[in-house]
Design brief:
Number of strands: 41
Keywords: Aminoacyl-tRNA synthetase, ATP-binding, Cytoplasm, Ligase, Magnesium, Metal-binding, Nucleotide-binding, Protein biosynthesis, RNA-binding, tRNA-binding
Helix content: 25-40%
Number of domains: 6
Pfam families: B3_4 (PF03483), B5 (PF03484), FDX-ACB (PF03147), tRNA_bind (PF01588), tRNA_synthFbeta (PF17759)
Shape: elongated
Cofactor: Mg(2+)
Number of helices: 20
Protein name: Phenylalanine--tRNA ligase beta subunit
Radius of gyration: 38 Å
Subunit structure: Tetramer of two alpha and two beta subunits.
Amino acid sequence: MLVSYKWLSELIDIKDVAPHALADKMSRTGIEVENVVVPQEGMKKIVVGYVAECVAHPDSDHLSICQVDVGEEELYQIVCGAPNITDGKKVIVALPGSRIAGNVKIKKGKMRGQVSLGMICSLQELGYSDSLIPKEFADGIYFLPDEAVVGEPVFPYLDMDDAIIELSITPNRADALSMRGVAYEVGAIYNRTPHFPVQSLVEDEEADITDYLTVSVADSQAALSYHMRLIKDVTIKPSPLWLQKRLMNEGMRPVNNVVDVTNYVMLLFGQPQHAFDYDKIGSQEILVRQAEQGETLTTLDGTERQLSPENILITNGSEPIGLAGVMGGLDSEITADTTTVALETAMFNPVAIRRTSKQFNLYSESSKRFEKGLNPTTITEASEFAAALIAELSGGTVVKGEIAASDYTPDKVTVGITLDKINRSLGTALTAEEVGGIFEALGFPYAEAQHRFDVTIPPRRWDITIEADIVEEVARLYGYDNLPSTLPGGDAVPGGLTVEQQLVRDIHELLQGFGYSEAISYALTTEALAARFVKEKRPLVALDWPMSEDHAVLRQNLTSSLLTDVAYNIARKNKNIALYEVGNVFVSNGSQDLPLEEKHLALALTGAKPERSWQKPSEAVDFYTIKGAVEGVFDNLGAKVTFRKSADYADLHPGRTADILIGETVIGFVGQVHPKVAKTFDIPETYVSEISLAALFAAERETIVYQEVPKFPSVKRDIALLVDKQVTHQQLLDVITGKGGKLLQTVSLFDIFEGEKLGSGKKSMAYSLVFQNPQGTLVDDDVNQIMRKIEKALTEKYEVEIR
């Protein structure tokens, strides 16, 4: 939001407050100021000139030789290349030795053999952006008004001596997206009362708006308020200079006297409006409704939009003429031929406007205000103000009456709070009189009895609804710098880690030892990323006032964030990546209470293993690389887990993914990112794992017992099994370890073979089994007996053939 200091001074008396001092005070009370810019700074010797004579350059088909009066005894000869230069006009002249935008110095020189004493400037050469300059002057020089005094500095005529204060408005302070809102804020800071301009509305009593229009709203939830006024006999022309300067200093391009008034009112009231050419509407009916599937609308930018049912439309009863709150239709725009204006002032559903803006990638000053909220009590006032000003600037007449097809009256908001609550929250010792003074400065009516305040919140501050909001208002008006700073008191006690904290610390140390680097990412993400890498879709936790589309909901997984980090590294030629993150995920519990939080661990791995040397070539990571890291974590934490093949994750490769289980409870997954998903993230083959640490904390863990090295030798036996392909390693391992007893120390798979010789649907799996008795030497009979039990169990359960 850009705030003109001159304009603000007209709304509230701040002549004794310098712009930079005002900016500093606003930043200290809660509305951050990004910058304060005075457009004329850095420029000098730029004056008003009068073109007394203008002739074509003899040696050029596009240059003109101008004799310009700059308030001195003799005329200045200046060569100008602007196509619209002509005599009899007052222009902007940069004298020799002057500096224009970009610190460019203007010198005396020659152009095609003709002396040029300075430069006739366009607005671009004074630092104005192309997007702000009126279209009639976009490709040429700017003509000053006749009342401009020749030889005087040009800056006051363009309000370039104004200070432009750039505010960074957070979503909860959308009331400051208007000059009136900023004036209220400044009034609260300095305890002064703002005064707003009034435009006298004179209506034509001989005509009534109902003779011209019928207006209806199909769903009042789509358009909470919808008002329409009519101004007839208008003449479309450029706006007066005061209005053009005001808009340009606020970052908006002047268009014509009707459109400029709607933008001016939007900046003043924070109330977007739209003007339709009444004669181009195509009927005497206005209907606000949801779009139907397959409908199209060509918007003001000349683009045909394919509409969807979530879009709110302004129609002439049958055909769309505007995309509500976002952009008007091309067929009903205000042009030089317009004589009757239908003026819309409305309050649309903010969620629908936000979705429509996102759908079409159309973001405007109007849509921003509709999304963040409006003051519903000034809609009628803004409508009357705009209608009266359009009539004044266009020579038109306001038709009697206003149609309100829907009208929204907000509920009265009263927040109760005690003086003790305020002081306890802020650590202050404010008196009731001091707090009451702050409420008066804010313009909040209140009743106080026995140090309890019942504060009535005006509709212009729709962000205040609870006690905490009141505490914040008191804190920022009292001054954050004035809040006392204290150190915690009490007796010092020895610190220590909880069991969960120690486990998390152990996980960090283990993964860093395995070569993984820690990543820390935002808990806020997009809806699409939040819902990835989960078995079942669960309700998302969305923010009411997100800072951006990329941080609109709380995450339900850590994997998406890690893949974003992988993509970032890949784009910067870092191809071997091993990352992990420990953090919370969030799931809505279906009520207004806080969401459910659960701590997760996630890993992401891509590229090659680090053991590359002159003796050993690099080796790409695979499923078993990341599975080994996961197993290493669980083994060191004393948790017994198993893995089970899974195809339940849409974002993971169905043939290279496994569930991680403790007992029969699934606590996470490990697998390869689905190639289509990897392509979406623009990353190569990548492996990920995500584990619920909450489930790990709750599970029983084996205590690690240290023993002396056995004195007695071990016995190793190999066994080869011919089994069906459907039988998994885990199933065979469960049988072997179950029948192996206490003497079986380790089981390792050392060979898998498939081929035609084995038969269709068969595979051979070979295991090494190590037996050891810490109390004595094993004999062959003991080992043979155990091996027979294992072979029998395998044969009975899975019909294996011992090879």
